[in-house]
Automatic annotation (TrEMBL):
Keywords: Acetylation, ATP-binding, Ligase, Magnesium, Metal-binding, Nucleotide-binding. This is Acetyl-coenzyme A synthetase. It holds the Pfam family AMP-binding_C. The modification N6-acetyllysine is found at residue 620. It comes from Hydrogenibacillus schlegelii. One of its GO terms (molecular function) is AMP binding. InterPro entries: Ac_CoA_lig (IPR011904), ACAS_N (IPR032387), AMP-bd_C (IPR025110), AMP-bd_C_sf (IPR045851), AMP-binding_CS (IPR020845), AMP-dep_synth/lig_dom (IPR000873), ANL_N_sf (IPR042099). Residues 42-92 form the Acetyl-coenzyme A synthetase N-terminal domain. Belongs to the ATP-dependent AMP-binding enzyme family. SUPFAM superfamilies: Acetyl-CoA synthetase-like. Residues 542-620 form the AMP-binding enzyme C-terminal domain. ATP binds at residues 398-400, 422-427, 511, 526, 537.
Amino acid sequence: MTDREVKAAEGPLLESKLREERRFEPPADFRERAWVKDRTPWEEAERDFEGFWAKHAEAEVHWFKTWDRVLEWNPPWAKWFVGGETNASYNCVDRHALGSRRTKTAILWEGEPGDRRALTYEDLHREVQKFANVLKGLGVRKGDRVAIYMGMVPELVIAMLAAARIGATHTVVFGGFSSQALRDRIQDAQAKVLITQDGAWRRGQVVPLKQWADEALAEAPSVEKVVVLRRVGDAAGAAMVPGRDVWWHEAMAGAAADCPAEPLDSEHPLFILYTSGTTGKPKGVLHTTGGYLVGTTLTAKWVFDLKDDDVYFCAADIGWITGHSYIVYGPLSNGATVVIYEGAPDWPDKDRIWAIVEKYRATIFYTSPTFLRTAMRWGPEYPKRHDLSSLRLLGTVGEPINPEAWMWYHEHIGGGRCPIVDTWWQTETGMILIAPLPGVQTTKPGSATVPLPGIKADVVDEAGNPVPPNVGGYLVIERPWPAMFRTLWGDPDRYVKAYWSQYPGRYLTGDGARKDEDGYFWITGRVDDVVNVAGHRLSNIELESTLVAHPAVAEAAVIGRSDPIKGQALSAFVVLRAGVEPSDALKEELRQWVGEKIGPIAKPSDVFFAADLPKTRSAKIMRRLLRDIAEGRALGDTTTLTDPAVVEELRQRYIAEG
Ligand code: 6R9
């Protein structure tokens, strides 16, 4: 660092003392066959930004009517492909079913108990049309909201595409959120119909979705009708409410097979997806039709280098944005074959995901750093049980990936031959914005690399000035992109205030980042995931990555708890790899390790060994709860956790160990 950079780093900005020297070039044969082989798309987009998007909107998406204007930008209000008419369901289903992909497999589904189903594009076409007629029969009209509360079953995809087909706006609520969370979302969206299932399988147990839905509906009077899929049968003991509830199979039996996709205005609302904000009230992120479809279709094609013979497996849940954009809309719009798995990754054993990769000969695999760190903890013997040679590309999303987790993924899953795409994006961005294109970009473990063609991002200080290389700041997006959210449902003021007021005209992502001397972006986590130790601002992810780089450590979360002297003191919650014994000597060794790698200031004041870390359903460590534990507070909202028991157990043990 130069003197100026050191000075800047001492100021309000994040310090970064870690340097990653490893580099990975795209393999020559991969580059040879990749959709994008050189920097032409970046050049095209810079020469003519709107022309770039127009060209790809035309090439990748079917339009009933072409747009009059590519972009109308009255910051912060955007309209894309203004005057155009399209339909997401048509693009994901009809154009393949009516074209050359009629008998191609669209969905390869595996249930947790081991049952299997395959749907061709023709099957999907028939089911989606029938269910669209069911919705119409229940009184759903264009513009109405339809809530969906299901597990990972093909009918979830069918329901989404059926709603989109008739211009109803879907809001998918993660199957496993509590009844209160469901109630709040239905109330906010004022949904007219709810689609759910009797129960869902999870670790061999039944998750009683219908029962939870009934509890939610007691306080959500906007819902007039409920469609219930029979998934687990008598095990759920679901009670049907006469006049309100209908079984999926009974409704489908009487539904006509023909329901043409409605031409919809490009800006017609496609879906609302709720995401947690810094305050308690969840934010209803609204995505519209044309721009979202263009953005997800093109990025699915380019970032995953999606080809007709690929078998694409994304292990995320459809209840969060990754599933919306990169299980449903992006891949299906490309006519891909998509693997969907219903259940837990460690059921019946910790090799389930790899067994699925092997069984379906998956070529592309997309998951979260959290899952990879968990798999690291379980040990490489699980992937070793399976032939993973079909894989040609790997992806990650959801959190910064620790370089060691990246290397583990590369070696143990990718067999050293698969490029890794670390994709940075958000519910709000709708599509991937920063990621390597795998045939072009040299990757560095831990970096999402550079913005995609057409995307302009930067790292700025409080005043909005770009910071020098390797100095941390706020990640902003400099101009609109097609799949950007258009507003927060029912709360346009919050849309303006939360995202566009700090730097007018520029989108505030809420993430911290730094750019290195090559222009690579290193996301340091949410801006609130910053610890301030004696005036030094350190990023959680760098501290955690340092711990994960120690051979004994599988996962780590580092938080700052208030300290009368230093401002904040670092507490490290560490999950050890399988077979490693916890000891006081190891705690001390880990403290020294961090001290050596980052500097004495970064040495955790205490190290606590945990069996597991609290994570949200969208695979993010909830550091806020760890702070509550470390500071002896009552726990805040835990409704978005995968397993609330984890945090309670942690709290008890933390108290016991003093
Ligand atoms: C897609 C998704 C968004 C937040 C985002 C950031 C974190 C996502 C990341 C990443 C570093 C990546 N995030 N991808 N951080 N590297 N590749 O996760 O959406 O659930 O809305 O979360 O996730 O902090 O701001 P969402």
